[in-house]
Specification:
alpha+beta; 8 helices
């Protein structure tokens, strides 16, 4: 009897020791689990949760947590990306609103000192044109603010339906709209346009915004001169002296947040928007820097025959 009791006690002791060991291992495993979850939530690591314990229930818990943490990380990335897109969209629209506003103010300044009634009428007509452009941008901002999913918004221009347009006429009208800006800056642009219509495939409002962003940037940095050329193949080239640039910095002009001058509030946002619009309309835009002259080269898509 005593032997049986001794055996039972020994077995109970072994069972107790095993239970204690298992509890210790489980506690260690769940401590590891807690630590890993905290690191994941704080974005210190994205390594899946692993446990030293072989307990199947703990392992199952770790698998479920890993799956949910992966989904959480995915949702977090989508949220951050959505915020970035929203910020970029608002910044893009705000940037483009400044261009017509600046032109309107310039024409109002010219009208204040103008005696010729005929010129005043011309200025008023150009102010009206820029006001319509401003209205289009305001409509775009409204559509963005009321969108069911603003994070999916990208820079737009009208319906962006490709159409056959006379790019010669669009460029000419855009240049005229900057007349006040040229006069204020003392720039008399050298303009070379074909004598006939040049047809390309592009959304008209996109083309206008592309030209506006390029010319407005040229007005900021052109050192007294600006050359605008359009050939019969639909290639437009805008050239101006750019003493502050180098071949390396010229290549960065289309980076969204690149700043030409240190401490300047002006960035590559205008060129970035122009590049996005060109891409959406099947064209290309690039920069070239040679002998102190910056050239922005725009190639529109030829009409499909």
């Amino acid at each position: 009897m005593k032997i049986i009791l001794a055996v039972l006690c020994a077995l109970l002791l072994i069972a107790l020791i095993l239970a204690v060991v298992k509890i210790v291992l489980l506690r260690r495993g769940f401590d590891e689990l807690t630590e890993n979850i905290e690191d994941q939530i704080k974005c210190k690591t994205q390594i899946p949760v692993t446990l030293t314990t072989t307990d199947p229930h703990a392992k199952r818990t770790a698998e479920i947590i890993n799956r949910e943490l992966t989904n959480l990380q995915k949702e977090r990335n989508e949220y951050l990306d959505g915020n970035r897109k929203v910020a970029e969209a608002v910044t893009g629209i705000s940037h483009d609103i400044r261009t017509p506003l600046t032109a309107i103010n310039s024409y109002l300044d010219l009208m204040a000192d103008e005696k010729d009634e005929e010129l005043k009428k011309q200025y008023l007509e150009r102010i009206k044109t820029r006001t319509l452009s401003l209205s289009d941008l305001a409509d775009e901002l409204f559509k963005f603010s009321t969108s069911a999913d603003p994070s999916q918004y990208t820079v737009k221009s009208g319906d962006e339906e490709l159409e056959i347009i006379d790019i010669n006429r669009v460029l000419e009208e855009c240049i005229l709209s900057f007349y006040a800006g040229f006069k204020v800056k003392g720039i008399e642009p050298d303009i070379v346009l074909p004598e006939r219509s040049v047809y390309v495939e592009c959304d008209r409002k996109s083309a206008n915004r592309i030209f506006e962003n390029i010319i407005s940037n040229a007005l900021k940095y052109a050192d007294g001169s600006l050359q605008i050329k359009l050939d019969e193949n639909g290639q437009a080239v805008f050239s101006n002296p750019a003493p502050d640039l180098t071949p390396v910095s010229a290549a960065k002009l289309f980076d969204r947040y690149y700043t030409v001058k240190e401490g300047s509030a002006s960035t590559g946002l205008g060129f970035s928007i122009a590049r996005e619009l060109m891409g959406r309309n099947g064209g290309t835009i690039e920069s070239e820097f040679k002998d102190g002259i910056l050239s922005i080269i725009v190639n529109f898509r030829s009409p499909v025959n």
